[in-house]
Specification:
Layout: E1 6-12, E2 15-22, H1 31-38, E3 48-53, H2 63-71, E4 76-82, H3 92-104, E5 114-118, E6 121-131, E7 135-144, E8 147-148, E9 154-157, E10 165-171, E11 175-180, E12 201-203, E13 211-221, E14 226-235, E15 239-241, H4 245-259, E16 263-268, E17 271-277, E18 282-287, E19 289-295
Parallel strand pairs: 2-3, 4-5, 11-13, 14-16
Antiparallel strand pairs: 1-2, 1-19, 3-4, 5-6, 6-7, 7-18, 8-10, 9-10, 9-12, 10-11, 13-14, 14-15, 16-17, 17-18
Length: about 300
């Protein structure tokens, strides 16, 4: 087994992970081990696995990626795997969960920004303590540059569910298609009534598999410039999750393009998070929780 004996269960607004520290680089998991640990019946259960290790201990990284991480001040790297064992470029909620874990194991300062390497570049996480309405152990994550495609260029359907919606492609280091389902041309059910156990279909087909977000705008306060929205997500590699950090950011980008509003409080099944969008980047603010330490037998 290429896993340590001690691992930790963590979550960030319900997006849950098995996490562990690998100081020496000898605990790189196999896809089979990831699937076992993330299995909710035969393993610990999680939407993904995160190994916190040094950038040069991540075997799929190129020399340039390692150099970029170190040049960006990231001594530690988030080696993230989806629950199906596949590699993932980025996980916004995972950055918060692994940073809280890094503080607990003494490799991150609880009061200072933490530079974390990811396959989508270095992310900077700033501790914010307890913040209403976002919860405890809140971090603001600098998620980096976003790229948006043509608005409403994709048809989004759910097999077995009547209706369709139009979606917009957003690249947040990983691919997303965001459908605002109360648009005039959307005929899907309400966000709350969607069957997201079934994987949505996107046409035309995007070359790489993508996460798909379904969103409803709940309110816009013109005085404060803050909008409120509700989102659900089917995440590639694990199905519906209670929260998706990059999906929240992609949603904020699309809502901004449709409304001109830069700041959004977005509620997912795991809680409420803040998304702030500028021309250059996105910042995501939300909580993280360490649940339990687990000894593998």
């Amino acid at each position: 087994m290429s896993l340590p004996q001690q691992v930790t269960k963590a979550h960030a607004t319900g997006n849950d992970f098995v996490v562990y520290l690998d100081r020496s680089g000898k605990f790189e998991p196999t896809p089979e081990e990831v699937r076992f640990l993330c299995d909710r019946h035969f393993g610990i259960g999680g939407d993904g696995l995160i190994r916190l290790t040094r950038p040069d201990f991540v075997s799929d990284l190129s020399d340039d990626q390692i150099s970029d991480a170190l040049a960006g001040g990231a001594k530690w790297f988030m080696d993230y795997r989806n629950a199906d064992g596949s590699l993932a470029e980025m996980c916004g909620n995972g950055t918060r969960a692994i940073t809280l874990f890094a503080q607990r194991v003494g490799v991150a300062d609880s009061t200072e920004p933490f530079r974390l390497g990811t396959r989508a570049g270095v992310k900077i996480l700033t501790p914010r303590g307890n913040m209403k309405p976002y919860g405890a152990n809140v971090f603001q994550v600098e998620m980096g540059q976003w790229h948006i495609g043509e608005q409403d260029a994709y048809e989004v359907t759910i097999p077995g569910t009547e209706g369709a919606a139009r979606g917009t492609f957003v690249d947040m280091g990983n691919p997303h298609v965001v459908a605002v389902i109360e648009d005039a041309f959307a005929t899907l059910p309400r966000v709350e009534d969607l069957d997201l156990v079934t994987k949505p279909e996107v046409r035309p087909v995007i070359e790489s598999d993508q996460n798909v977000e379904f969103v409803r705008i709940d309110d816009i306060d013109e005085n404060t410039g803050v909008g409120e929205a509700t989102m659900r997500v089917n995440e590639r590699g694990c199905g519906e999750t209670l929260s998706c950090g990059t999906g929240l950011c992609a949603t904020g980008v699309v809502l901004r393009s449709k409304t001109g509003i830069d700041h959004w409080d977005i509620t997912v099944r795991g809680g409420t998070l803040r998304v702030d969008v500028t021309e250059r980047d996105v910042r995501l603010t939300g909580s993280a929780t360490l649940v339990a330490d687990v000894t593998l037998l």
